[in-house]
Amino acid sequence: MYIIGLTGGIASGKSTVAALFEKKGITIIDTDQLARQLTDIGQDSLQKIALHFGKNILLPDGSLNRKLLRTIIFSDNTQRLWLEQLLHPLIRTEMEQQIHSAQSEYCITVIPLLFESTPNPIINRILVVDTTEELQLKRAQTRDNISLDEAKWILLSQAKREYRLANATDIIYNTGSIDTLKEDVEKLHQLYLSLASHHLK
Ligand code: ADP
């Protein structure tokens, strides 16, 4: 299977771009979504998280207090590493299973922290969704209902824009309208179809 790793900073437009590829029938595997599923009520990982961080990490209904967890791991690297060591291998296994059963010509894995984690050898190309920091901050605040300071803090914790761009195979500049985005996705889709058709299955 030919695999595209889609990444970009917070609110750059990864989900929006992924949804446009999905409309073309391409299988999308979203690692954030997998992480959320793995920490749903009833999952082993949620029990391990509650044991490690204490019961306060759970909301009254027993589900994970994701906002609190995010605050903890953003301010404490050791805790972030602990959580990554728990979830990353599980996410990778689930991702590989979904890739294995994917029926589309190629597939896209959405990996927000692709440049912040260990390289994934199964990825053939890296597609970076890029936009200006002003737009990122504005869109993150509106979408997530967070303050400007919180948005800036998240941006600072992520890989630098220049680093992402320097290491990209393909780039989508998401600074214009959704219609422009659709045209860019269509061009890349044609390229990926052609590359995938020459790729050994
Ligand atoms: P990411 O998945 O990278 O965090 P999203 O795709 O969720 O980012 O986009 C962040 C927010 O910005 C969303 O509310 C989305 O609807 C909006 N958005 C993304 N691209 C555009 C665009 N080209 N024009 C207007 N709004 C956009």
Write out the distinct hetero groups bound to the structure.
adenosine-5'-diphosphate
The CATH homologous superfamily name equals: P-loop containing nucleotide triphosphate hydrolases
N- and C-termini, Cα separation: 5 Å
Main sheet specs: 5 strands, parallel
The CATH first-level class comes to Alpha Beta
Architecture (CATH level 2) name: 3-Layer(aba) Sandwich
How many helices in DSSP terms?
9
Q: Over all CA atoms, what is the radius of gyration? A: 18 Å
Please report the total strand number as a whole number.
5
The assigned structural class equals alpha/beta
Return the CATH topology: Rossmann fold
Helix share of residues? 55-70%
- Total domain modules: 1
Write the topology of this structure:
Blueprint: E1 2-7, H1 14-23, E2 27-30, H2 31-38, H3 44-53, H4 66-75, H5 77-101, E3 106-110, E4 125-130, H6 133-144, H7 148-157, H8 161-166, E5 170-173, H9 178-197
The structure holds adenosine-5'-diphosphate (ADP).
Adenosine-5'-diphosphate is lined by residues 8, 10-16, 139, 143, 174, 177-178, 181.
Structure, described:
The structure is a single chain. This protein has 201 residues and is an alpha/beta fold. It has a single domain (2-200), classed as 3-Layer(aba) Sandwich (Rossmann fold). The chain is 55% helix and 12% strand. The chain contains 9 helices and 5 strands. It has helices spanning 14-23, 31-38, 44-53, 66-75, 77-101, 133-144, 148-157, 161-166, 178-197, and strands at residues 2-7, 27-30, 106-110, 125-130, 170-173. It has a 5-stranded parallel sheet with strand order 2-3-1-4-5, sandwiched between helices. Helix 2 (31-38) packs across helix 5 (77-101), helix 4 (66-75) crosses helix 5 (77-101) and helix 6 packs across helix 7. It is globular. The N and C termini lie close together (5 Å). The model has no long low-confidence stretch (mean pLDDT 94). The structure holds adenosine-5'-diphosphate (ADP). Residues 8, 10-16, 139, 143, 174, 177-178, 181 line the site of adenosine-5'-diphosphate (ADP).
